[in-house]
Amino acid sequence: MGVPTAILCLAWALALACAHPLTHSKTEAAGGGHPHGAEPPSNDTDLAQLCADEGGFDATTLSENGTMLFFRGEEVWESSHGGPRLHARPLAASWPEVGGPVEAALRLYSRQHPQEHQSLYLFQGEQVWAYFGGQLRPGFPRRIGDEFPGVPGGVDAAVECHPEECGGETVLFFKGDTVYAFDLALRVTKPRTWLGLGPCDATLRWLERYYCLRGTRFQRFDPLTGEVPPGYPRDLRDYFIPCPGRGHRQGNASWGAAGDRCSEMPFQALLSDDTGRIYAFRGGLSFRLDSLRDGHHAWPLGQTWPGLEGEVDAAFAWDGRTYLIQGSQVSIFLSGQGHRRVLGYPRALQDELGVSSADAAFTCPGSANLYLITGDRIWLVDLTQTPRQAGEPVPLPHDHVDGAMCTNDGVFLFCGPNYHQYRSVAQLLGAKEPVPPQSIATHFFHCPQ
Predict the structure, then answer these.
(1) CA 295, CA 289: separation in Å to the nearest integer?
(2) Span 96-125, average pLDDT
(3) Which residues, 6+ apart, have CB-to-CB distance to 135 below 8 Å?
(4) In which band, very low, low, confident or very high, does the pLDDT at 45 lie, cut at 50, 70 and 90?
(5) Which of 220, 240, 292, 424 has the fewest CB atoms within 10 Å distance of its CB?
(6) What is the residue-averaged pLDDT of the chain?
(7) Where residue 254 falls among pLDDT bands split at 50, 70, 90?
(8) Which residues pair with 172 in a beta bridge?
(9) Residue 402: which residues within 8 A CB-CB, separation 6 or more?
(10) What is the DSSP string of 374-424?
(11) Stretch 223-232: mean pLDDT, rounded?
(12) What CA–CA distances, in Å, run from 111 to 295, 304, 378?
């Protein structure tokens, strides 16, 4: 059996960056906070008030660092990179030039215009301010219609729309029931009416999904049609806001170490799918790890993998499908946008892969060889065979592995708070002793030692 030289590039990062509510309407004020300097301590009293009131946001967007920014009145609430915490700052502390409430906010990403790559736009009345690296860009503020021809002043919300989701680099502006789609390349605006969506106080793109916020409720929508999937609206305080005792299945603050990127709690499974998305699983949560621009967030398992509950023991991807192993069963999901479980699953792991259980699993790019790890042994399964059968076990230089992954830079084995990086499967299988461990939190999440 030939051992492919698999190379695994772990674009590893992980954390929980949550969001927060506010209490006033747009007519009362707006807020601003920006990731300048150290994070101030969160205020539990203010958080309790935010979680108790029924107010909404004036604007929301992602910062240049991937944290979530929620504007209301003269303040902005910003999520923390280190866990489910909120930090309030005066608008003037980060964007003194705006001088008042923000009505809409937008982080613009443009591959064709590098200078605009991470520009943050703040809208107020007829004017727009653009910031790059925390500094006001030359020539701003200016009229909204001059920067975005065809877009009226007084917009309620704005959100960037990426080419893979909108067919081109686009900005969606919301005003009442009308949506103005501005094409960044052609510099033209096309108005649309999405009656099914309704007015939005704020909008947000996060992990390739689009959200319309109104009061304490939000809806997910299709950026091309405005269509809202079943199950909406939902309450912000159960998803984006870390309210104690709330959250989807009592999540957010109650996730504890499982949702803290800097904790040393072991990861139970990892995978890199065919689309380049990287996921980690821990404590009933799934983490998206390749999304630096969108921050590193955790969601309850069922939010990304519909119908899946409990904890994932091992995971891998092959041929456009993601395999999630739980005990003696395996579920298969299509790896396209919006994971869908394949009919007939879960089914017995023994019937699907020829083994009864697994501590970790990985496939390498372009290979149909699946490697399953249990204890200090590794098995090879040829995924092209029917029925699938595991080969003879080969000893590993590790007594136990929590998770494993392979991409274009080698094989990574995860053990407790550390990982071990091997250049290839061949090096792993030929090793007599583990390669030196490295800290997951320090090297991948830039946590203090």
Answers:
(1) 9
(2) 80
(3) none
(4) low
(5) 292
(6) 81
(7) low
(8) 159, 181
(9) 266, 267, 268, 359, 360, 414, 415, 416
(10) ETTEEEEEETTSSS--B---EE-S-S--SEEEEETTEEEEEETTEEEEESS
(11) 87
(12) 19, 27, 42
DSSP SS3 for 9: coil
Q: From CA 25, how far away is CA 55, in angstroms rounded?
A: 7
The rounded distance, in Å, linking the Cα atoms of 141 and 138 is: 9
Question: For 195, which DSSP code?
Answer: T
Q: What is the DSSP letter of 425?
A: H
CB 418 within 8 A of CB 285: no
pLDDT over 50 (residue 8): no
What's the Rg (C-alpha) of the chain? 23
Helix (H, G, I), strand (E, B) or coil at 179: strand
- Write b or e for each residue in 259-270: b if 16 or more Cβ atoms lie within 10 A of its Cβ, otherwise e: bbbbbeebbbbb
pLDDT tens-digit readout, 137-172: 999 999 999 999 999 999 999 999 988 788 888 999
Give the confidence band of 243 by pLDDT, cuts at 50, 70, 90.
confident
Q: How far apart are CA 376 and CA 393, in angstroms?
A: 9
Q: Check residue 22 and give its pLDDT.
A: 33
Among 174, 171, 175, CA closest to 184:
171
* DSSP 8-state assignment for residue 350: H
pTM of the model: 0.61
HSE on the CB side for 97, CA within 13 Å?
Answer: 17
Tokens coding 30? 């707006």
Tokens 């274009």 identify what position?
408
- Per-residue pLDDT tens digits for 401-421: 999 999 898 999 999 999 999
Give pLDDT, residue 330.
96
DSSP for 70-124? EEETTEEEEE-SSSS-EEEEEHHHH-TTT-S--SEEEEE--SS-GGGTTEEEEEE
Which residue type occupies 61?
Answer: T
Burial of residue 289, with CB atoms counted within 10 A of its CB: 0-12 exposed, 13-18 middle, 19 or more buried: buried
Q: Return d(Cα 148, Cα 160) in angstroms, integer.
A: 13
Residue 431: CB atoms within 10 Å: 15
Residue whose C-alpha is closest to residue 297's, from 283, 310, 280, 311: 280
